[in-house]
């Protein structure tokens, strides 16, 4: 068998990453190493693009609501405030759960911008992909959608573009009429599209008394899905303590049934009787938040019953992202 040639470092001047031109994966790397691009600078560039960011919305106001709108809420919008002034001709920027035809973004005829959150992304950093889409939407021609693409590995993230002090206040809608400025006078084709989208949407309400908790209605039973900002292991311990003590419910007939993992945070889920509406769980949710705070502050080892409760909760976790 032929011996492998040892890889030696070239004595030629090394280019900086920002100076590496785009070449084919199998072509020699222009840095002068003698290796193929995909095995040299191309490897680090690909890793930078595809590496998964576990908490892409960390540091943004309303991280839990970002996750809820990305994974759980059918129809909602949020007005976004940028660090810099909006370009001339752009009156507003609105985040939406989903847009027609699953467009990543849309520049409306009046110049306003809509950004879709529930879209596939080309890299492992949703924040960078959304920031790239936002920047391109700000300069798109009015009346045109913005298509998806792979964001530059060194491009800005949402945390770089959005005002860190800006409030993140989702408005949950019963349907997708926000897609068009005048839904009542929409064309038959648009009206039919809206009707189909609305028929698939699950009724959802954001609780007002606690953060990032969303009630939803399904044919058999209702649910409360609550995105919580605490470290997963600490939260599961606290939930197990409450579950073992019979204090994990939100009232008669309700039950903590498990949790989701989504974008670095944990989302406990409760089953609710079909007659229990969002307003019915406002007070129980606030009371549960107080019990949870006390359980989170407890650092004694779990009892046997609490460990069993924790095991049951862990076994009923589903990872969404």
Written account of the structure:
28% of the residues lie in helices and 16% in strands. The protein is built from 8 helices and 12 strands. The relative contact order is 0.12. By secondary structure, the protein is α+β, with helices and mostly antiparallel strands.
Q: Quick check: average pLDDT?
A: 88
Number of helices: 8
Task: Please state the overall shape, judged from the principal axes of the Cα atoms.
Answer: globular
Side-by-side strand order of the widest sheet: 5-3-4-2-1-6
Helix/strand class: alpha+beta
Largest sheet: 6 strands, mixed
**Number of β-strand runs:** 12
Helix content: 25-40%
Provide the gyration radius in Å.
Answer: 24 Å
Element-level helix/strand string: HHEEEEHEHEHEEEHEEHHE
Distance between the termini: 45 Å
Any low-confidence stretches, pLDDT <50, length ≥5? 1-23
Proportion of residues in extended strands = 15-25%
């Amino acid at each position: 068998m032929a011996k492998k040639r040892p890889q030696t470092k070239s004595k030629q001047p090394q280019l900086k990453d920002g100076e590496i031109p785009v070449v084919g994966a199998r072509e020699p790397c222009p840095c002068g190493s003698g290796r193929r691009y995909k095995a040299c600078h191309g490897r680090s560039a690909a890793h930078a693009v595809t590496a998964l960011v576990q908490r892409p919305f960390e540091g943004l106001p309303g991280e839990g609501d970002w996750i809820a709108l990305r994974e759980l809420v059918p129809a909602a919008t949020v007005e976004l405030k940028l660090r810099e002034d909006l370009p001339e001709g752009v009156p507003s920027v609105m985040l939406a759960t989903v847009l027609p035809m699953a467009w990543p973004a849309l520049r409306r005829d009046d110049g306003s911008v809509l950004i879709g959150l529930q879209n596939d992304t080309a890299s492992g950093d949703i924040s960078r992909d959304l920031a790239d889409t936002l920047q391109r939407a700000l300069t798109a021609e009015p009346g045109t959608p913005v298509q998806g693409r792979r964001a530059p590995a060194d491009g800005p993230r949402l945390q770089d573009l959005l005002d860190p002090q800006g409030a993140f206040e989702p408005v949950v809608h019963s349907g997708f009429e926000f897609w068009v400025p005048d839904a009542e006078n929409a064309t038959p084709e648009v009206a039919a599209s809206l009707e189909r989208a609305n028929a698939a949407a699950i009724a959802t309400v954001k609780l007002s008394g606690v953060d990032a908790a969303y009630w939803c209605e399904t044919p058999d039973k209702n649910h409360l899905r609550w995105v919580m900002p605490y470290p997963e292991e600490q939260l599961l311990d606290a939930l197990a303590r409450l579950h073992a003590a019979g204090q994990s419910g939100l009232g008669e007939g309700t039950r903590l049934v498990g949790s989701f993992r989504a974008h670095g945070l944990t989302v406990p889920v409760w089953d609710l009787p079909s007659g229990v509406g969002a307003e019915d769980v406002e007070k129980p949710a606030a009371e549960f938040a107080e019990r949870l705070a006390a359980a989170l502050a407890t650092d004694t080892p779990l009892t046997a019953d609490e460990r069993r409760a924790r095991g049951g909760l862990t076994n009923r976790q589903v990872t969404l992202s």
